[in-house]
Amino acid sequence: xxxxxxxxxxxxxxxxxxxxxxxxxxxxxxxxxxxxxxxxxxxxxxxxxxxxxxxxxxxxxxxxxxxxxxxxxxxxxxxxxxxxxxxxxxxxxxxxxxxxxxxxxxxxxxxxxxxxxxxxxxxxxxxxxxxxxxxxxxxxxxxxxxxxxxxxxxxxxxxxxxxxxxxxxxxxxxxxxxxxxxxxxxxxxxxxxxxxxxxxxxxxxxxxxxxxxxxxxxxxxxxxxxxxxxxxxxxxxxxxxxxxxxxxxxxxxxxxxxxxxxxxxxxxxxxxxxxxxxxxxxxxxxxxxxxxxxxxxxxxxxxxxxxxxxxxxxxxxxxxxxxxxxxxxxxxxxxxxxxxxxxxxxxxxxxxxxxxxxxxxxxxxxxxxxxxxxxxxxxxxxxxxxxx
Length: 388
Known about the structure:
CATH topology of the largest domain: Apoptosis, Tumor Necrosis Factor Receptor Associated Protein 2, Chain A
Distance between the termini: 20 Å
CATH superfamily of the largest domain: Apoptosis, Tumor Necrosis Factor Receptor Associated Protein 2, Chain A
Order of helices and strands: EEEEHEEEEEEEEEEHEEEEEEEEHEEEHE
Number of domains: 2
C-alpha cells in the first residue's frame, strides 16, 4: 500500500474536523495467524527527520549552548489557535561560536514551541551541515506530567534574494514528554548558507531567517473494553490530548474512538503526509489509526490504516505480536446518522517490526472517496470536526 513519506524516528514513536473512527478489536495473542483479506494491504513503513536525543534526555544548558540574545528576534504570525508561523532572525550568523542556539518560546495550540539549531551540526550530522529541530513542550513543565500532541510542520531557511532557492523540509511527528524534539541533523550545507553569492545572508548584518510553519492537531479520544473481556479492569478511558491512561492487563477486546476537532486545517496536509491517533493497547501490541489521502485510478480517496507502534524499543518488545480482528469506521455526525457510518472489516497479525514478514500496518488506500467525506451534506465532516 503506497504511503506518504515520513520522517525517520530514531527512538520509538512518531484531523482537524470531527473525524471519529472506531476500531473494534476482538483479539487474542493465542489465536492462529492468518493472512489478511484481499482488501487490506500492507502499508510501507515510512521513513527522514530525526529526533534529537540529547535534548529529549534533558541535557542541561552549559557554556556551549546559548539562548536567544539581543542579536536575534522571533516574530510569530498566528493564523488560528492551532496554527502559527514563526520567523526567527539570527544576526551575525557566520561569527556564532556556540554549539547550539534556541529561539524564544512561542505558544501554538496550548503548547510551548521553540526552534533549536546546531550551526555546525549536531553529533548525528554529516560534516559541514547545519542541524535544525522543532521542540514542543508542555507549558506545565513538570517532570512527572505526561503529555502528547501531534504536529505537522515545515522548517525553512529563507533566501531573501530568491525565494525559490530557500531550503525547506516538511514533516510530522507525535511529540510527547519523552520525545520533545524532531527535525533534521543534515538540514542544509553550511558552506551554501555562508556563501554571499547564494543570498542566504542579509547583507546588512549577516543574519539568516529561519521559519517554522506549525499545525497542532486538536483531538480527543475515548477507549473502552468490552464487557466480555475477562481481563477488564479499567472499563473506559477518556482523554482530551494524546496520552492514554494506564490499562491493566492485555486488552483482548475493545473500542477506540478518535475525534479530530480541526480536521479542516489538515485537509491539504494529508495529501502528502498523514495524521496519527494516540496509541492504544491491543493484546501484546500497541496500535494507532493513521489517516491520509491517496489517488486511486485518478480518484482521490480518504485512506485509513491500523498501525502497530511500540512505545518502547527493546529486544523483548520487538518479539511481541497480536492476531487481530478489527473494524475501522468513519462516523457520521448528523443527528440520527448512526445508520450512515462507514465500516470496513479485516484481520491480520501485527508485530513491532516486519522482519518476520508480518504486518506493521493494515488498511485501505481507497477507504472512501474524498468527495463523499468532505461533502457539506454528507455528515462526516461537520464544522471542521471528524471522528474515526
